[in-house]
Amino acid sequence: MVSLKRSDMRVFDDAFDMHGGYVLDFSDRTMAEFFEDEFRIEIYQEKYRFNGSSKAKYLRAFIQTEDEYTVAKVARTLWQHRETLPRYQERSAETDAIKTRLFDLIAQIEGGGAVPRTDALDRFKRDETLEELIAAIERDIGANKPAAALDRLHTYCMKKFSHLLDERGIACDRNNPLQSRVGKYVKALEAERDIREITRRIVKSAISVFDQFNDVRNNKSFAHDNDLIDQAEARFIFDAVSAFLRFVKTIETSRFGA
Description:
The chain is mostly helical.
């Protein structure tokens, strides 16, 4: 079952013109045929009737009842149908905004509906700037805006790996790029621990990931006057970087016996 706020449901209302009880250009008959032909689903059945008997109310009930995969698939197909209809052919800023909101919501639904986790962020030293940095990331993630958080996540990583190298007495110039800092840390980690080969490969691959993270930060984040990366990809990047940070946090905790 998909968990949605009322504001999320209004996104569907706007996308599929559900105001007034209608859904796009469908009649009762053609909507039933659409769901049967495209999804092998009987839309007019009792379990979707709890909101009422209009087409829009059946669709809202369907969205509230079914699993994430099914809802996302239906939403994508309904939008494709909308784009074939003459009345919706004219492009406008409003239409573009509706489409963006819909596909951001679909990405959220396909990601399980929950916002990304921020437990990988470690307050590794007493530093007011660090506190403000983490708080800013948590605000963006709490608002489900991972694209906005990527610039600050990059800054966090720069500070984090500089700190880890300083603790080991390894030189780290402030001009060293992120992938260089991660590379030095990975080399130190290999010298300190006997890790399995698969772990070694994953950890080493992180160096190239953080190299590409530089490009995302510089060209697809709020670091500069950029067009932001889309919601689904931003979340994937945030989660991937966080997974490595979470591993590092666990390693460092065990290293100091905490």
